[in-house]
Amino acid sequence: MVELTSSIWRPKNFVKLPAARLRASTLKEQAMHDDHDRVHSLVAALRDQLGSDGPACAVTFARLRWSLTSDLLRHMALERLLLSRLQNTRDLRERCDQDERTFREHVARWPACAMQTRWHEYRSEFTAVLRLIEARLQFEQARRLTAAAPVGEVQRRSA
User: Fold this and answer.
1) Does residue 53 sit within a domain?
2) Which of 31, 110, 114, 154 has its C-alpha lying 20 to 30 A from 62's C-alpha?
3) Reduced to 3 states, what is the DSSP secondary structure of residue 56?
4) What is the domain extent for residue 141?
């Protein structure tokens, strides 16, 4: 039986991948893109809830925070899986691991009762965490676009 293959252009050469592997790679990239959209939406919704005296609605805030935690940790696990299959990504993997530790520590440090009693302190730290998440997503998006762009496009962007 003949195995179907597809060619992917890389800056220095052509790489032959089995068609099933190419589809799986495309699906993972789509999942990452979908995760980015969901996380961006959740970050925006959470920012709207960060009132000066407490969340606009405690139940809504708790639901959004849980959704962000769930979606972000799933996204980080998928990213770790993708990075584990690539060579020369040690620095990137370490950065991703540090971001995940920072987020997990934040969630562990701030149960609902602590957020309510120390809202101003929580809000300040959570705002910094949201900025970290947004910076990470922007970095991932730029990296993904750079990797997908033709060689000439990458050179024009960096010029």
Assistant:
1) yes
2) 31
3) coil
4) 28-146
